[in-house]
Design brief:
There is one protein chain. This protein has about 230 residues and is mainly α. About 60% of the residues lie in helices and about 5% in strands. Strands 2-1-3-4 form a 4-stranded mixed sheet. The longest helix is centred in the middle third of the chain and has 23 residues.
C-alpha cells in the first residue's frame, strides 16, 4: 500500500506542491484520478475523506489522517516528515510561503477564471507580478539567500518553503518563458534557488513525469488559453 492517497486533477497546478513535497521526502502515493474526485465532490459529505469543496485532498494512509486545503496539507507534511524549521517564527514563515504560493496562482488565474486575461489586464498585472517576485527575493535575502547558495529561510537543508518555491516558479518558468525571464531579471536569488532545488533527483523525476503525463498543461480551461494568448506562448 502506498503511503498516501492524493486527490487532485490531472494537472500540475495546486496539487504539484503536494506531489513535490512527497517526492522530495521519498514517499509513495496513489492518485485515484479525475473521475474519483468528481464522484466525491458530487456525493454526500459523509463519503468524503474530509469535508472539502475542491482538491487537493491528501489521505495519510498510515496515520489515518485526511486533509484538504493546500497550505494545511503542506504544513502537515512538513510537520510529520521533519521538513519544517525548529524555530516557531520560521515554521510560521513556512506557512506564509505556502499561502503566498497559493495566492499567487489564484492571481495568475484571475481567481480560477472569474475573468479572462486580455492584453490590457496583463499589462496592468505586471507590476503586481513583479512585486510577488520581490516578496520572495526579499524574504530570501533576509535569510542570506543568494543566486548561488542558501535556502529561502536559511538552514543547512531544503525544507517545505524551498520545495514549494521551486515548484511554483519552475512550473511557471517551464510553461511560460516570459515569466521565467522576469524572474531572472527581478529575483535572481529566487531563480537560483529554484534551479538548485529543481535539480534534485526526486524533483527532476517528478517534473519529467509531469511533462509526460500533462504535457504543456498548467491549470487548463479557457483561463489558461487566455494566459497563453497574452504571453504569446500558445
Amino acid at each position: 500500500m502506498a503511503d498516501y492517497t492524493l486527490y487532485y486533477w490531472s494537472a500540475p497546478f495546486r496539487g504539484q506542491f503536494v506531489r513535490a513535497v512527497l517526492a522530495y521526502a521519498g514517499k509513495t502515493w496513489t492518485e485515484p484520478g479525475d473521475d474519483a474526485i468528481g464522484a466525491l465532490m458530487e456525493g454526500p459529505l459523509e463519503a468524503m475523506p474530509v469535508p472539502f469543496m475542491g482538491p487537493p485532498v491528501l489521505v495519510d494512509e498510515t496515520a489515518g489522517v485526511a486533509l484538504s486545503q493546500t497550505p494545511a496539507i503542506l504544513f502537515y507534511l512538513g510537520e510529520t516528515l521533519g521538513l519544517l524549521p525548529a524555530a516557531p517564527a520560521l515554521r510560521a514563515l513556512t506557512l506564509k510561503v505556502a499561502n503566498d504560493a497559493n495566492d499567487l496562482i489564484d492571481d495568475l488565474t484571475l481567481d480560477g477564471g472569474r475573468l479572462m486575461w486580455t492584453d490590457a489586464r496583463w499589462r496592468d498585472f505586471i507590476p503586481r507580478l513583479r512585486k510577488w517576485m520581490a516578496l520572495w527575493e526579499d524574504l530570501g535575502h533576509r535569510h542570506d539567500l543568494s543566486a548561488d547558495a542558501g535556502h529561502l529561510l536559511g538552514g543547512d537543508a531544503p525544507g517545505v518553503a524551498d520545495v514549494v518555491t521551486a515548484t511554483l516558479w519552475s512550473t511557471l518558468n517551464e510553461r511560460f518563458p516570459p515569466i521565467a525571464a522576469m524572474l531572472e531579471e527581478g529575483a535572481p536569488a529566487t531563480a537560483g534557488l529554484t534551479r538548485r532545488i529543481s535539480a534534485l533527483p526526486a524533483l527532476t523525476d517528478l517534473a519529467t513525469r509531469a511533462r509526460r503525463e500533462y504535457g504543456d498543461l498548467y491549470c487548463g480551461g479557457e483561463i489558461e488559453q487566455s494566459l497563453r494568448l497574452v504571453l504569446r506562448t500558445d
